[in-house]
Design goal:
Blueprint: E1 4-9, H1 14-17, H2 31-46, E2 53-56, H3 60-72, E3 80-82, H4 99-106, H5 108-116, H6 128-148, E4 152-157, H7 159-169, E5 188-192, E6 198-203
Helix pairs in contact: 2-3, 4-5, 6-7
Length: 212
C-alpha cells in the first residue's frame, strides 16, 4: 500500500513580491505564482501522481494554488477540504509591513527570531509553536487517516503551516528549525510507513523551474 502525502506551499503572492509580512491577510497570487502552481501540477502529473483527497487553508493564495494544481492534473472535480487550521501563521502587528523596514525598526536579530525561531511571537501574532498547535491536531484528525488508508493526499498551504508539519515529519527540532524553509510551488513528496513515520521524502522541482 502506498501512503503518499504531498505538501505544496502556495505560489508567489502579491505580498511575497512586495516583501511584506502577510500572515492572515489575503492577497492573491502574482502571474509568477500562477505559473509556479501550474508547473507543480504538470510536474506531479508527469510523475504519475493522482490525488484522492486535497486540503487547503481559508486563504485565497493557497486555495488558488490548490485549484491550479488539480486543474493541470485533470482533477478539477476533486472535492477540496478547507480549514483555517492550515492558515499561515498570524504575524499580528507585522502584517502588511515591509520586512526590510521591520529590520530597520526592530533589528535584524529580532526580526529573524520572529520569522524563523520556534517559540518567538511577533507582537500580537503567533509563533511557529502556536501555529503547530493548530496544524498538527488537524493533520492527525483529518489528513493522516486518509494517507494511512492508502490515499494520495495533497496539502496546499503556507510557508509556516507547512514548516510546522514538516518539522514533525522530518524530525527537525531545536536550532535546526530556523534552517527549515518551504519554497513556493515546489512539491514535497512524503511516503509514510505503516507506523505513520516517513519512509522517504522527495523534493519535486518541475522541469521548467530547474536551474540550468
Amino acid at each position: 500500500m502506498e501512503r503518499i502525502l504531498i505538501l505544496v506551499r502556495h505560489g508567489q503572492s502579491e505580498w511575497n513580491r512586495k516583501n511584506l509580512f502577510t500572515g492572515w491577510r489575503d492577497p492573491d497570487l502574482t502571474e509568477r505564482g500562477v505559473a509556479e502552481a501550474r508547473a507543480a501540477g504538470r510536474g506531479l502529473k508527469q510523475h504519475g501522481y493522482a490525488f484522492d483527497a486535497a486540503f487547503t487553508s481559508e486563504l485565497v493564495r493557497a486555495q488558488k494554488t490548490c485549484a491550479l494544481i488539480l486543474a493541470e492534473m485533470g482533477l478539477s472535480d476533486l472535492p477540496v477540504l478547507r480549514d483555517r487550521a492550515l492558515n499561515e501563521r498570524d504575524y499580528g502587528d507585522l502584517a502588511g509591513l515591509n520586512k526590510d523596514d521591520a529590520r530597520s525598526r526592530w533589528g535584524e536579530a529580532q526580526v529573524h527570531a520572529w520569522r524563523r525561531s520556534y517559540d518567538a511571537r511577533p507582537p500580537g501574532g503567533e509563533s511557529l509553536k502556536d501555529t503547530a498547535a493548530r496544524v498538527l491536531p488537524y493533520y492527525i484528525a483529518a489528513i493522516l487517516p486518509r494517507v494511512m488508508a492508502g490515499a494520495q493526499v495533497l496539502v496546499a498551504a503556507h510557508g509556516n503551516s507547512l514548516r510546522a508539519l514538516a518539522m514533525v515529519l522530518d524530525g527537525v527540532g531545536g536550532e535546526r528549525v530556523a534552517e527549515l524553509e518551504i519554497k513556493t510551488g515546489i512539491p514535497l513528496i512524503y511516503r509514510l510507513k505503516a507506523d505513520t513515520t516517513v519512509a522517504s521524502r522527495t523534493v519535486l522541482v518541475p522541469d521548467e523551474r530547474a536551474t540550468p
